[in-house]
Design goal:
The complex is a heterodimer of chains A (about 110) and B (about 110). Chain A is built from no helices and 11 strands. By secondary structure, chain A is mainly beta. In chain A, strands 2, 4, 5, 9, 10 and 11 form a 6-stranded mixed beta sheet that branches. A 5-stranded antiparallel beta sheet of chain A has the order 1-3-8-7-6, with no helix packed on it. Chain A starts with a strand and ends with a strand. In chain B, strands 2, 4, 5, 6, 9, 10 and 11 form a 7-stranded mixed beta sheet that branches. In chain B, strands 1-3-8-7 form a 4-stranded antiparallel beta sheet, with no helix packed on it. Chain B is mainly beta and about 110 residues long. Classes of the chains: A mainly beta (about 110), B mainly beta (about 110). Chains A and B meet through strand 4, strand 5 and strand 10 of A and strand 5 and strand 10 of B.
Chain lengths: ~110, ~110
C-alpha cells in the first residue's frame, strides 16, 4: 500500500504563482522526502526533512512537516514553466520506504 | 560519475519470454533499489540490496521476479516468464546509506509485454 498520499492529484497554475502540494501519511516516520519526476524520466531528489525538523528551504522550495497531523507540504514559489512535473513524497518508516501517488503540476507560461 | 545507468531503456517482448533488466549504481553507493512504476499502482519498491546482499524482497510481486547483485557495480532484475501485467517502467536507484539519504534514480526501463 502507498504510505504517502499527495493532494491535489493535479494542479494547474500560471507562471509566477506559488504551488502548494500536500502529503499525508498514516504511521510515524523517520523522515520524509520530496522527489520530482519529469515525464518519462527518473525521479530526482528535491529535499529531505527529518522527523525532528519542522521546515526546510532549498532555493524556491519550502517544505514543512507536521508530525502531529502526519502531513507535509511542498511549496514552490514563483513557479516557472520548467517546474511542470509530477511531485512525489516518500516516507521512511522503520526502513520501509513508500511513495505516494504524486501530484501532477502544470505551470502555464 | 555518470549517475545510475540502466539498460535497456525500452524493451518490448512477448508474453512468456524472459526479460532481464540491468542496472549500474553510482560508484561507492552501498544501497541499490529496484522500483516499478505503473499508472494504477504508482511507484512500488520491489527489492533492495545492501553491499550486494538482498535485504528486503517483500515487494517482489511473485516468484516470476528475481533480482541479483553479483558485485557492487551491477544488478539485474529478471522476469521469467513475463506477462502483459508486468508492463511498467522499472527504475533502479542507489544511495549512500539506507532510506535516510537521498536516492539517485536511473532513467528507467520501459517494459512492454505483448
Amino acid at each position: 500500500s502507498q504510505q504517502g498520499e499527495e493532494d491535489p492529484q493535479a494542479l494547474s497554475i500560471q507562471e509566477g504563482e506559488n504551488a502548494t502540494m500536500n502529503c499525508s501519511y498514516k504511521t510515524s516516520i523517520n523522515n520524509l522526502q520530496w522527489y520530482r519526476q519529469n515525464s518519462g524520466r527518473g525521479l530526482v531528489h528535491l529535499i529531505l526533512i527529518r522527523s525532528n525538523e519542522r521546515e526546510k528551504h532549498s532555493g524556491r522550495l519550502r517544505v514543512t512537516l507536521d508530525t502531529s497531523k502526519k502531513s507535509s507540504s511542498l511549496l514552490i514559489t514563483a513557479s516557472r514553466a520548467a517546474d511542470t512535473a509530477s511531485y512525489f513524497c516518500a516516507t521512511d518508516q522503520n526502513n520501509d520506504m513508500r511513495f505516494g501517488a504524486g501530484t501532477r503540476l502544470t505551470v502555464k507560461p | 560519475d555518470a549517475g545510475v545507468i540502466q539498460s535497456p531503456r525500452h524493451e518490448v517482448t512477448e508474453m512468456g519470454q524472459e526479460v532481464t533488466l540491468r542496472c549500474k549504481p553510482i560508484s561507492g553507493h552501498d544501497y541499490l533499489f529496484w522500483y516499478r512504476q505503473t499508472m494504477m499502482r504508482g511507484l512500488e519498491l520491489l527489492i533492495y540490496f545492501n553491499n550486494n546482499v538482498p535485504i528486503d524482497d517483500s515487494g517482489m510481486p511473485e516468484d516470476r521476479f528475481s533480482a541479483k547483485m553479483p558485485n557492487a557495480s551491477f544488478s539485474t532484475l529478471k522476469i521469467q516468464p513475463s506477462e502483459p501485467r508486468d508492463s511498467a517502467v522499472y527504475f533502479c536507484a542507489s544511495s549512500l546509506g539506507i532510506f535516510a539519504n537521498e536516492q539517485f534514480f536511473g532513467p528507467g526501463t520501459r517494459l512492454t509485454v505483448l
